[in-house]
Specification:
Elements (H helix, E strand, L loop, with lengths): L12 H4 L2 H6 L10 E8 L5 E3 L7 E4 H13 L4 E6 L19 H12 L4 E6 L21 H17 L4 E4 L6 H11 L6 E8 L6 H7 L2 H4 L15 H12 L4 E5 L5 H11 L3 E5 L1 H12 L5 H14 L4 E4 L2 H10 L1
Parallel strand pairs: 1-3, 1-4, 1-10, 4-5, 5-6, 6-7, 7-8, 8-9, 9-10
Antiparallel strand pairs: 2-3
The structure holds ligand PBG and magnesium ion.
Ligand PBG binds next to α7.
Length: 334
Amino acid sequence: MSFLRQFPATRMRRMRRDDFSRRLMREHVLTANDFILPVFVLDGENREEEVASMPGVKRQSIDLLLKTAAEAVALGIPALALFPVIDGPLKSLDGAEAWNPDGLVPRTVRALKQAFPQLGVITDGALDPYTTHGQDGIIDDNGYVLNEATVAALIKQALCHAAAGVDVVAPSDMMDGRNGSIRQALDEAGFELTRILAYSAKYASAFYGPFRDAVGSSANLGKADKYTYQMDPANGNEALHEVALDLTEGADMVMIKPGLPYLDIVRRVKDEFGVPTYAYQVSGEYAMIKAAVQNGWLDEKKVVLETLLAFKRAGADGILTYFAIDAARWLKDQ
Ligand SMILES: NCc1[nH]cc(CCC(=O)O)c1CC(=O)O
Ligand SMILES: [Mg+2]
């Protein structure tokens, strides 16, 4: 940068002086188009439960979820990501409720797509809400999650969701080869336009705690962990390897998860592959911000919008965030 002159000829503060020049040099813009809203659905009618560790987030029955979806649509949010709360008696060792065509997720997908055809609906591909042990897949006698047996189950789950009309399936289980197997099965069944959003670089993170409370899998999981399939937070190159494999297998979009602590990975993935790249601001990140806000320690609107902008700056094309509705509203009012 030999053209750079020094102070006092160069004054960085000149461009920061007025709102007009600050706006002119702004590199990134946040809009509602950047958001995917994760939602929790439970069975029944007119039912709503607060998630204790996620103040402001609710588990809702389908009829009430439709109202949340209507808000998202009105604010211009392109898509929501659906997570089910499965009743205890429906959970099993193999999670077979995950591919029940009349299960909670397919019923919700049908209701959402009927009411809001223009709203993108994304479903999670993993067995943890459905298994008695809380693992994302099918386990052997030692509790090890079996790769191929799990992929076979995930195929049934993806076909079940596709048949219900879902737009995007999002495998979040971290089994090897699942994207390619799901892609092939979808294509063979005539669902060649159903998209795959791969949770490609999903870390074995402590930030998922509140989510596991929300879907009710933490009690089932107990002291067990997910280290044999989710990624080690110490690794960065491994994330690029995972993303490369998922793209080869036919993933349309890739995701990095969690969000803020992994923005370096978002940037590396975007630079390396230049494909549609998403990041998940997960439940624990939401809980941290909410707790500080509730203590009066942080300004919610400013802090949330700053974090979401940071995802854009790091290269994310979109952000899964529990703040999506609030943030879209703040952006509209601003
Ligand atoms: N496959 C389950 C799944 N899908 C999304 C999340 C976490 C989302 C969040 O924390 O907000 C998890 C939890 C986990 O892997 O244990
Ligand atoms: Mg993988």
